[in-house]
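Name: Hydrogenase maturation factor HypA
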Amino acid sequence: MHEYSIIQSLIATCGRVAREHDVKKIVKIYITVGRMSGVDPHFLETSYRFFREETVCEHAEMVVEIEETEAECQDCRKLFPVKDFRFDCPECGSTKSRVTRGKTLQVTHIEAE
Ligand SMILES: [Zn+2]
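Structure predicted for Hydrogenase maturation factor HypA:
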């Protein structure tokens, strides 16, 4: 599963950061998940709770921030929010749009003590 490997590398990163900064435990992890990232936020959290056992992240809360999808029309250059996977331009009706936001999958912040 995609989410499993993401979480495993996330926890490995936290472990490395903790060692490098002489940190005892991680308190909070902020992660941004785009709607178009291919990752299910709910499943990501479930995976996280499973894999954090007996790691530096054991007591760390994961805060998932959802990044909504936005696209740019390639004909009239309008930027518009994508709802329900509708990629046609609300301005001119063109179907030639390019996703400009929503593919992010990134840890933005880690709190430790
Ligand atoms: Zn347009």
